[in-house]
Amino acid sequence: MIGLYLHVPYCTVRCSYCDFYLVTGRGRDLGAYARALTAEIAAAADAGVEAPGPAAINSAARSPADTIHLGGGTPSLLPAAALRPVLEAALRFCPPSGPAEIALEANPEDLDAGTIDLWRTAGVTRLAIGVQSFDDARLRLMRRPHDAARAAQSVSRARAAGFASVGVDLILGMPGARPDPTLDDVARAIDLGVDHLSLYLLEIHPGTRLGRAVALGKEAPLEADAAASVYEAAADRLIAAGFEHYEISNFARPGHRSRHNLKYWTDEEYLGFGPSAHSYLGGERWSNPPDLAGYLARGGVGSKRLDDPQPRATRGWEALSAGLRLLEGVDLDQLEARYPGAMPAGGDTTIEALVSAGFMTIAGRRLALTRRGRLVSNELFERLEPKRSGRIS
User: Is residue 117 in a domain?
Assistant: First the structure.
């Protein structure tokens, strides 16, 4: 079964740390975007859809989808009434054969009682709420449009509404004069009864407002060693509360893992809709152009898709790196069967060195990161990249 990703490139404001493709939603006709998105999904089921991958897309239209994920941007900015036809088009395109996970990324300021009820009746089963922090000072630095009280209220409302899963996102490592409040944020989320928690380490991008402030010396992010200590303490607290640390940045109560995101980490197929959305189907990868104006002008139909050809070794390495993000790690034999010649052999000296250094474990042909390895995962993935070398101590 495949996953469907529906992209909504609008936000109320651009957060200080964000470098994603988006536009601010004030004064926009978001209903027009929902109609364009619906039209693109409907057109994908048409036998006349253009390359790349018409055969793959037409095959997908005959395959059930077990996940539909609305991401962004901020999908909760879409008028709630406009969401229903979008989801109906997706369900017609790839009718699920059983209960589907239908997930929506939402911001706290959008979660009023009436809107939540409309989401539920439209079929949404899972909410991922972009809380980022329960600390007002940090929220102001991030330029988030909500405060801590509204964040907590939104989680409580979502819990009371009866969604199958309610999760929150938090950011670790923001600048600040006080000690990092992440552990307090984690404790608050646990107390609110969330089913899932994503804990992302802040990345500083040069073109962002925060990146410019850091470059000018006006702000200083949490040092790497301090961030690692907070991350480990947060992981311990969540595990003690009954969460599985199932992926580097993600924790879930049993039965509440993100089924859609697991497709990315386990090299499964998905189809994306909306400007800048990516797809992986039938061995092909492509994306839609990041051109919202053109997308709207064409009513969502007829965008020239951008092919993403990559050598087998690169795709194999990507699948290996994504799989190693998971608690269970990867089965090297299965990846070798999918990408012949692209996987490290069992006696590969790089893997042996990383295992000996305590960054990885290997049992039979299953390779996994240790907790120490998770703290430096990006560096480890570079070590495993074809024709890359480096040293970690």
Answer: yes
